[in-house]
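Tutorial sheet, problem 5. The two components below are modelled jointly, 392 residues in total.
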Amino acid sequence: MRTVLITDDSKTTQMLVQTTLQRLRDVQFRTAENGREALTVLAREPVDLLVTDINMPEMDGIELVREVRKRHPREKLPILIITAKGEEDARGEGMALGANAYILKPISGRELLQAAGQLLP
Amino acid sequence: MTDREPRTFPKGEELLDILQRGRRFTEDLLAENERLRFQMVGVESELLKAQNALANATVHSAEEATQLRARLEHLEKRYAEAAAENQDFAQRYSEVSQENESLANLYVASHRLHSTLDPKEVTEIICEIMVELVGAEDFGILLVDERTNELAPIRVEGPLQPYPPHILIGKGVIGMAVAQGTPHYDESAPEGAPLAVIPLQIKGHSVGALVIVKLLHGKRRFDAIAKELLSLLAGHAATALVSSRLYSSVDRKLRTIESFLELLKPLPARA
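Model answer (structure tokens):
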């Protein structure tokens, strides 16, 4: 069973990502509302894919990518970031810090499935 | 759970059922695709064999040559039919995939909208749906004030300019769409004017509107999924908004009555 960690302060996005990725086989989900919560989950159990938003309270997606990459290399834990308009700089920074891919909001189910399908082991 | 806590409406479960049926249908289509691909490979192989046989065969008689040509024609016809069927399948797969995405969005939207009876939270969820699922950047949620027959914004993201103080039902782009109860799309509207007005309706009665002035990433067009979602969302958002407001108002009244009843209770006798 592969584990996807969805990090977003919006419950709507969390649910949409989960509903969409349920179409992939053998996948289970964990959710976190910000980067800090995500790091707690990552310290507790193995995760196969991290899907994260950028704008979040307490610890944003950029900081999360930075922290994750200190412990997990790109090949071991792929990161998919979800970005909105006006976050072009943050998106570039996230990719430079070691995110594997990004998708734009509004989330397209097909794009999300394709990206997650390529990143999941 | 106390009787004051909101309960999830059965609509969410119905949608989950629809979604699961969509998933099963997609899986059937995938199996059908596999069968067709297998069939095409078989026909291609037979066709190739027949062509080779025709090329290499020492034709002993005119009758044999005619038979081989007929077989070749038959196989070519079958190949064309299988190719057409496959193309048709690809088209259907794309449609079903789009439908699935639409259903997934609707399921999420509906589930979220009916997960609470707090008016503030419902408004917040509508905003999330507008941004995350529809891709709206500047938009407004308007409700009809029954006393004045005017539309008043309860939440605006972006500039306030598209929402004048008195939006009468039946007047202007927004008022007309609400009066007619039909969505209005004008993708060539000038900047700052509504690109879409979606009436919020309960049983054919307009109770408000969703007004979109700007889309994310500078887009001007709504894709089919966004339009479908908006039309389905209109009913769910309307029900969620109105029921949460009613619940909140009834709850307030109930608390007031409870406080009065508390005051009417006899004081404990002094020892």
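Marking note: DSSP finds five helices and six strands in chain B. Full credit if you identified this.
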